[in-house]
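Preliminary data (for renewal application), NAP complex.
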Amino acid sequence: MPSDESVFSAAVGILYVTCPLIFLYLQFCTVPYGRHARPGWGPPLPPAAAWFLIESPTIWLTLLLLPHGRHLSHPLALAIISPFLLHYLNRTVVYPIRLLRSGTKAGFPLSVAAVGFCFNLLNAYAQTRSVTHYAHYPPAGDVGWWIWARVAAGLAVFLWGMAVNVSSDLALLRLKNTAGGGYKVPEGGWFELVACPNYMGEAAEWLGWAVAASTPAALAFFLYTCANLFPRASSHRRWYLQNFGHRYPPSRKSIIPFVF
Ligand SMILES: NC(=O)c1ccc[n+]([C@@H]2O[C@H](COP(=O)([O-])OP(=O)(O)OC[C@H]3O[C@@H](n4cnc5c(N)ncnc54)[C@H](OP(=O)(O)O)[C@@H]3O)[C@@H](O)[C@H]2O)c1
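Predicted structure:
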């Protein structure tokens, strides 16, 4: 029977090893859901149910693991795991409810949902055990101001990213509604600069969180998020240009304003 520590190290190792492989794979294959859906990837699930299923381990597994963390009552562990749960409460519960109301019809392939579910099992385990058990913190009463400053700066970036992510998702779902289930060119705010401000916000969230947590697991999660979302944002931008022609401003970048 492998020890808990070796399982944890293996989980973080898998994140680091698969991250560049996923990035390479996504240069050639766009994950087939939403506008990029195509047949041959298994039976379609209703999108709201798929998102709930995919993201649910981040809630139930995290809550199951929390009581087993030796740092559970440490203020740094609490300050770092709370935003993780906040993000996934939105993604698992609030976002699927909004999807239900939006008129999004395209089915979500079971195979893609299964891969997402497995990733979240692995990642929720790695992040929760990292923050609440394996990270090294100074004694609770002895946390230097510079550590709190680093955590505060990271969480400020996280909260900004979450605000951009949630508001952009909301704007897109409203657009879906007004487009009668189809697509329109998004206008205003960050949409004037990038095709996918929701992805930009998500990447900023996990960058900030990695700064706050300062663990190898959190850094791996940030890199994994970029490996996943940068190629997808490029595919979205290409799709807009192909489907809307001159009505889609070519000056808009994919995910980082003026850069990429
Ligand atoms: N951490 C990660 O690695 C990761 C990975 C994937 C997703 N996510 C997050 O999960 C959320 C959803 O991701 P997603 O890939 O589904 O985002 P998305 O492609 O931007 O789509 C979001 C929703 O808006 C609709 N939509 C998008 N653009 C539209 C337009 N121009 N007109 C009308 N409707 C439009 C989509 O409809 P359709 O579904 O019909 O296209 C979908 O319902 C995002 O916040 C993202 O950051 C995170």
